[in-house]
User: Fold these one by one.
Assistant:
Number 1:
Amino acid sequence: MSDIDKTANIHFIGIGGISMSGLAQIVLKDGYGVSGSDWNKSAITEKLENMGADIVYGHGAVNEDGINKASLVVYTAAAKADNPEIVLAKEKGIRLIDRAEFLGAIMKNYKHAVGVSGTHGKTTTTSMLAHALIGANLDPTISVGGELDLIGGNIRTGKSDYFVTEACEYTNSFLKFYPTIALITNVEEDHLDFFSGIDEIIASFRQFAYLTKDIGYVVAMGGDKNVQKVLENADDLNIITYGMESKFDYYPENIVYHAGFPSFDVMKNGEKVCHIKLNVPGEHNILNSLATVAVCNLMGVDAETAAKGIETFKGTHRRFEKKGFLNGAVVIDDYAHHPTEIKATLHAAQKFPHNKVWCVFQPHTFSRTRTLWDEFVGAFDDADELILTHIYAAREKFDGVTKPENLAEDIKKRGVNAQYIDKFEDIAEFLKKNVKEGDIVFTMGAGDVVNINKLIVE
């Protein structure tokens, strides 16, 4: 960022996105002028406007004044080459970079820069790190892909040398980062509209791990078979492992569940370093907390202090988030949209007292649904009642073959009581008539399925 004049303006195309808005907040607080454009006004964009950003709204919106003032234009991966603001910036010879490159430039300013990567668990683990580092009074800058109550949103701008951000592999964007610690939670097939398959994904994560060569560490979930492939023969990297077994550097012992939430001893190389009582459910969160302790130790935070911070974490919005009640049944919203995430969430629900587990799932993108079809079929075994709704297309168009009603039929053949209901209003009415006290109801997916909660929560 040192090459950008602070009297100049930085313009963000798609400024209202969860990541772009966070970057805009960082530079606003650092004294830069900020302008932007987005399709719709939101609570996020209103916050940016209150901080001094000049934003124009609407499909194909052009903030010509912002472009004219800009020394730099930052755009999202969703912005196409024919975007009118990109075209205008090129005509005027203004420097253009994508979001990932801009975030990488920010990371360069920090002595301790953590990139939290993985197919699953990025937001939760980044949030746990936020709690641990803030609890240790390190005043970190945090960029998280969700709303975290502790920091009042998705971004926290600190004044120290500590920076933590999610690092997404989609379009290889995390390869533009500059981490001193690369955390890899797991590696699976995903984003198959970009990657050709698991081999290319593994290769991408390996490049990410090697960004730390000679300058830092890789913290990796050692029990993941694909993470093992990522780090195969990587003897020239500094690698710290964690997992559920004692063969890893960090692992848990004496796991006990209290009302669905796990507590356990954290072991490091055979010695107990702390005890953690989590306020979020599931074995996957045991792993996330182990990763957090490992990263904190590398940054000079002792395990006991890290544990105290982790224990204050009660989840982010849209991650096992309690929304209220319906007919005496608790209603929970969750962002899970990959088969592994779905399995982990529904398995965690089994640790809570309940009668039936209801799941309303919205598949996310046609490409993911099509390529992981068999995995989706096997992901709902812990649901007593499953309702599939329409596919959230996001950046895609209907491919002519991938239909949620067919997925529901295949899941039903497996023995799960599954059905397809297209409209949210019809789903809400069905739930109101059939859900009983003592049940658990999940709305699940990365699209707009969360809106069902507005129709059912009492």
Number 2:
Amino acid sequence: MNERRSGRPTGVLFDIDETLVDLRTAMGNTLREISAKDLAHFTEEDWSAYQHLYAADPQGYYDRYLAGELSFSRQRLLRVAHAQEVHGLPAFDDDAAEAWNAAYDQTLPQHFQAFTDVMPVLDELDALGIPYGAVSNNVHDYQRAKLDAAGLERIRILVGIDAVDAAKPDPAIFLEGVRLLGTAPAQTLYVGDNPVVDGRGALNAGLKPLWIERSGNPGLRAAYPDLPVAGDLTAVTAVVSGSELPS
């Protein structure tokens, strides 16, 4: 058995977006709320496509933010500009872009919610005395506010990209989380929704990865045979209780 996968974890680190917090739904609800008047002609199909395109970010603007090429606000505005263009909508002028961004900033936190499987898992970790925290590809203060808005104030250990000037999959950001937990990398479970950034990133940093793939897409799962995968966070309870990681 792979040494990284053997033994019972003594600590757990989580990704935040799409692992603990349902960010896609929050973004979709925010887009709809702040644009409902201007896009009153949209059908449900239009809204679904518009929301999906913004969240999916096919142009990779968020990755450019992580690389230091764009500001956080700029990557957001470029994402919505792309969605506007694809749907044949006019581009925002500077004033409209500023107003849209301000409305988005104000509205988005109102829609942050934890997935329903989060609290039971954290309860179990508390009962077992297993420390946990979060490692995220965004800055600490923004993600701290997100966790709090989603009712996850109990997650006190949090590492953002500004902590070590590195983003996942760089090993440094994972290892900073391990340091704060006070655990060994090989006995720390890292749980995230992205197979490359979270799964293989954690594996390469010496942690135990657990990929959460909520859609149940067999083709996607087959593309990463090296990663233990589960459909929801209930697998975390099994792993920390001494069961084998899913395969």
Number 3:
Amino acid sequence: MRQYLKSAFAAATAALIAQVAAAETKYQPWQQDGVAKRPYIFTQQHNVGKETDDEAGGQLIRLGYPLQVQLPGNPALWTFQPDASLNVEYLGRTMVYSPNRIEGTESIQVFDLALTPDAASGTQGYFTFTTEELPPSLDKVVPGGIYVVHFEVIEPSK
């Protein structure tokens, strides 16, 4: 009986793993220019605004891929700073209600960005967002309400 239960458990586990694996492929990457591309997603943890230029590590971004920034909102209302950004274009914003996902916030603000048309492999850039109302839970990762990410553009095949 014990051997039968072990076999039944193993079979059930294998079936569950197969279902989970199949479910992972259910959601396909975003289509852009007829090619499936997943966006680069940046959160408050990618902030380098608190570091000097020497400490700031740049992100590698494949040419032609979409960019998305997801920052905790309400009370923080983030604003894209075009004059403090380089080689990116602002495309728009969406707000997702998500109370206390990050302590003291009520939503996630999702910003869509794109590399500028003249960006090429080796191009350096950065994007900046600011807020005037930062909850205390974010003081250490986004000091002063300034969010900055530095990047370098690379070829899509790398």
